Amino acid sequence: MRKKEKITIHDIALEVGVTASTVSRALNNHPRISATTKKMVLDAAKAINYKPNRIAAALRHGKSKLIGIIVPTINRNFFSSIVRGIEEHANALDYKVMISQSYDDYKKEVATIEALLDARVDGIMVSLGKNTHNFNHFESVLQKGIPLVFFDRTTDKLNVNQVIINDYLSAYQATNHLIEQGYRHIAHFTSHMKIRIYQERLRGYEQALLDNGINFDPRLVVESNMQLDGGQKSTHRLLDNNLGFDAIFSASDYAIVGALQELKRINVKIPQEVGLVGFSNEPFTAFTEPTLSTVDQKAIDMGQSAAALFFEMVNADQRNKPKVKKVLDANLIIRASSKRLQ
Amino acid sequence: MRKKEKITIHDIALEVGVTASTVSRALNNHPRISATTKKMVLDAAKAINYKPNRIAAALRHGKSKLIGIIVPTINRNFFSSIVRGIEEHANALDYKVMISQSYDDYKKEVATIEALLDARVDGIMVSLGKNTHNFNHFESVLQKGIPLVFFDRTTDKLNVNQVIINDYLSAYQATNHLIEQGYRHIAHFTSHMKIRIYQERLRGYEQALLDNGINFDPRLVVESNMQLDGGQKSTHRLLDNNLGFDAIFSASDYAIVGALQELKRINVKIPQEVGLVGFSNEPFTAFTEPTLSTVDQKAIDMGQSAAALFFEMVNADQRNKPKVKKVLDANLIIRASSKRLQ
DNA sequence: TATATTAGCGCAATCGATTGCATTTGCTGG
DNA sequence: CCAGCAAATGCAATCGATTGCGCTAATATA
Q1: Which of A103, B51, B140, B297 has the most CB atoms within 10 Å of its CB?
Q2: Which CATH superfamily, name and number, covers A63-165+299-327?
Q3: Residue A253 burial by CB count (10 A; 0-12/13-18/19+): exposed, middle or buried?
């Protein structure tokens, strides 16, 4: 049980009777090293339990094999699943992942970018915070030529690779589904209009109404923080203004639960009197009474796509490569809260 | 918009007219460097936008300023909050955090330990996976003298620092609360008996019964995977065996939701006919109908404590320091599902 | 047989920051 | 005025792996 005598390639070199250069090349399967030597080196390495020092290697060729991820909060099934997708892809290629949370705080997001740059990550994947309306902190990433990929919460103000779902289409389908179920006065819960996903979901909602000959009533669109309490308040706003809605399509699952609670409190029957559809397929949407219809965003797919984009950037000639916007299709999950036919 | 001409301390040295040694010392606020020189160096560093290369520094003094965290899954409010607590403490001390998920897979846990060791982290914090009953993979961590802290899902088979909540007491209080509310035939949902937290929660449950003169009936203790479906199945087992229970204390929030659903399906009134208490205070416990009583584990506190323990280890003389077991108190949150008095 | 190749490996510099030891400069006291 | 000491800085090695270039010996070609 002796201490930690660091084992380096020099120890292997001594053991085998060659130099460290040869050991290094052997370990990296360099073509100019004979098979015999390679085997000896590999055997010796195993024998003395050699572990490469990634830090030294990183210093030498400037690659840390680290990918930084920034999400608003990992405490969402959606985001943690994306991370899982990224991890799967990255680990398979011997990259490690560093996860950071911005907590939707602009300053923290800026600081986190700095921190990742300090840590010399080889690439950064970001889902923007809600309060990020300025993108200067990404300029330095771009200028350094570090691969940058945005996912889900992205912006068009920056020319970067991104992976998103078809928010427009998903919202369209969700709204359309409500219309098919006979609802006609459909409200929409949304958030900051500066954020792309909310813009798109609103657009899909409007178009579905239009295509079905239903008048768009701006008073039925309510903006909130998209949390539980936001959903409650938005519901009250609708009720207080006596707008006579018979359904809600919410851009967030949390907000739709708030609505569900408030409506049940005043004995509104779901889905008979009011239909509900959320967004994100958070696990709890399957736990409520009634269960909630929602949109599944294929988070793991999104993570894998984002990682794939990153590795394309790593391997490709960065220079004049045009940026890609990968759009994934989401899945409308129909549960009890919006099914009143049959 | 030119490329990335790496800026090093040598550039500063050139600018200021000293050597790199002096620059390094100035940046690190070494006492042997004059205030004048320090100021010049700092100014020059800012002027040419110098960013220290942590990798080079890491190579030199063998510290990466990285902490590795392993949790079964980040996709639990409890774990992500712990991570948040660790992050807060660590970032304040200029340490970065690497999060990895074991997905309760023993092999993945072993591989992750290897990966973190490869990445030369300065310390590792772990919450064990459900299927980890062998701890050899931690021996190498210990032998290398790398600080190791366990939290929540720990084991006593390893002599390491740990942070846990008082599972025994929390379970005792939860059970006692149910008894106070007049329930007498209290079932308990649990999981693998090899896991400390479940042992302790069972123990607390038993003791509360004992102290209140209620007979312990082993048939009322049901083991499952502690997921939603596990809770459903466990409930059915109780019902099918006609055991006449009037309350359930579950060691998991997911399982108690499963019970809630199944009981509501057959029109059992909660809390009038059956009282329910879960464990973990997952967000959705506030969303169900009725809302669920549960135990809040003060996850952020736990994370901060774990980080604090880590930094103690970093600063202290590791050698003969006895290992610490920090026990935090949890909070019973009483909601509608267990409140039938008044 | 003499020269041209090529395979196989070693030498030494390098990545950027750190640090023990040496050196220079400046000041104090005798 | 000079030894003596402290303050401030420089020199050069070091952390471990990588890699361009060069060297040697063996094989191939003429």
Answers
A1: B297
A2: Response regulator (3.40.50.2300)
A3: buried
